[in-house]
Amino acid sequence: MTTKTILFLLLFCTMLSTSIAQTYFLDDFSDQDMSDWIKYDVDGDNNQWDLLDLTGYNAELGHSMVSFSTDFDSNNFDPDNYVVSPAIDLTNATGEIVLDYTYGSGGAVNNHQETYSVYVTTANNLATLQGATAIHNETIANAESIETNSLDLSAYAGQTIYVTFRHHDTPNAMLALFIDDIVVRTPLDSDAILRHVDLIRYSLPSVDNTLSMEVKNNGNYTISTLEVNWNDGTDDHISTINVNIPVASTISIDHPIPVNYANIVEANITVTITAVNGAVDGDTANNVQNDILFNTLSQSSPKAVLIEEHTGTWCGWCPRGAVALEHIATTYPDTAVTIAVHNSDPMTVSEYDSGLASITGGGYPNSSFDRTTTIAPSTSAFEAAYNTRISGLKPVTLDVNASISGSDLTITANATFYTNINAANFKLGAIIIENGVTGTSSGYDQVNYYAGGGEGAMGGYENLPDPVPAAQMVYDHVGRELLGGFNGQDNSIPVSSITDGDNFQYTFNYTIPATSNQNNMYIALVLIDSNTGAVINATQKSINNALSTSDLELVSNVTIYPNPATDKFNIGFDTSSAKNFTITVTDMLGRTVLSQQHKNLDGNNTIAISTHQFNAGQYIVTIATPKTSYSKRLIVNN
Predict the structure, then answer these.
(1) Lowest mean pLDDT: which of 173-177, 250-254, 442-446, 452-456?
(2) What's the rounded Cα separation, in Å, for the pair 375 and 65?
(3) Residue pair 355/342 in contact by the 8 Å Cβ criterion
């Protein structure tokens, strides 16, 4: 059960029992509607409060009111945006009344300092609001945090009021302010809210897993003990936990009894606060979190993180995303699937562009990791997000194979599960990716705000002009085609109940365009949970490596040494019959710095290449036959 559901249950239970705190107003925007709020765009820039799905930022937020101070590119706003609640009837209210809400900034370090004020008035026209005195003013101090606040409204008992949030006086180069979970209520002496429960979803058998809880003290007294039970539908696991939760504070605590199963199971766990300070809580409706799924696996599976970076040649900051994506692709080639999803340029795939925008909320550059986490691109942010997402186990192994007839490719997707899933709703999707994409039209020019170095080093873009001419640009990781659609292919996993060991296959078809180079193309396979839209696992193969041995002449035992190289490096490989080989060395911007042709090579071969013409840095060395290729990162230290 989410925080939003709990809040609605609180409202419902208010109608049933006078012992529960009176709730006078509640809006958590889970109905995806804020049409009953009034908006004033005082600065007149046509950018004002709007409703945005922030699930990718934090699963507990869902839809929230958001006011931006930038458009993610080069335009900074000077916001002065008001948003006014519907009328809140306090005419029969007495005693203590509080306004609770959740708020925060979408910005990371150095771009989180959004300023906002809260007003309470008895009229909702702009003149009244501009003449009112704020009951709270704050500039957000914590980057990428979700805060809660409680304000005293007791002085307004007996009146009908409006609550207004104003986003204003925010410095340039910030990002966005969000407001959510707005409640006007009478507080209870004892009121613990179980806001969230964290439990790893997948585990091997007989392993202790910690169940962590986020608890807020919504009452009038400090909470010193909590009795908490987790139940899997069969057994209770009750424990009394010593805590110190001051009024209006939220803390994270661990349940002392770990989640551990010796067999292959899917457990549906409910967590309940059963007592607060040794007694029944004043409001039990917000003490429960349901449907926490936990699975044990018969074996672990290979895993990879899907990283979809939203970019465009028109976007001057997007070189930052390209550099970050290339860093992950070259550092983690076997455990990351990296895709550049283009917008409004010649490489755009409309369905892919709009599908990714529905997750990230737009903004360029931007990105999604496994379609669960939205990340503003930078090399350090990508590295941190990758390390977070690659941890943990996956319930499914994915594999992809192919056969080819002319330019017609038949792709066989395989998914093998290693757990039991009772309410499965999965789909397979295949994505075609191409490296080495070039063009001659102006649409392939890359706008480059890093030109001249004023914005610091950016993978070599600081040494390139603005824009970078098409003749100097090579685009990698380009998403070329969605097979099965953005949300996956219907009936590719045609069951709702999965048993450990079940295998599923699905066939996709793709015709390689004459303008594409098969040697530079990849097939990414993803498994999507249709209930959440999240990517459960991913894998990729080059088209050539996906082809069977009957379709492809294979290069075996390729070695590149020494690596790092100083004066020269060697390429060693075996081939069972005479073939022609092309050796290409490209830099991290995709520019070719060396290309050699070697004809009729047979048996054991060693090719030495001098590095004297290379600058110090990282390169990609590719050895290719007409039907296959092998690539490896090379570091040159001159």
Answers:
(1) 173-177
(2) 20
(3) no
What gap in Å lies between CA 296 and CA 450, rounded to an integer? 48
Convert the pLDDT of each residue in 403-420 to its tens digit: 888 788 999 999 999 999
The closest of 286, 278, 284 to 227, measured between CA atoms, is: 278
Residue with tokens 């069972």: 576
Q: For residues 276 and 294, give the distance between their C-alpha atoms in angstroms, rounded to a whole number.
A: 27
**Residue among 77, 24, 7 at smallest CA distance from 186:** 24
Q: Are 49 and 31 a contacting pair, CB within 8 Å?
A: no
Query: How distant, in Å, are the alpha carbons of 199, 339, 438, 555 from that of 434?
Result: 38, 9, 11, 21
Superfamily grouping for domain 305-546: Immunoglobulins (2.60.40.10)
pTM value?
Answer: 0.71
CA–CA separation, 397 and 415 (whole Å): 6
Domain with CATH 2.60.40.10 in the chain: 192-296, 305-546
What single-letter amino acid sits at 79? P
3-class secondary-structure state, position 4:
helix
Q: What is the dihedral of CA 135, 140, 144, 149, to 10 degrees?
A: -20
CATH class label, 556-636: mainly beta
d(CA 573, CA 606): 7
The two three-digit tokens of residue 365, written as one number? 């550059």
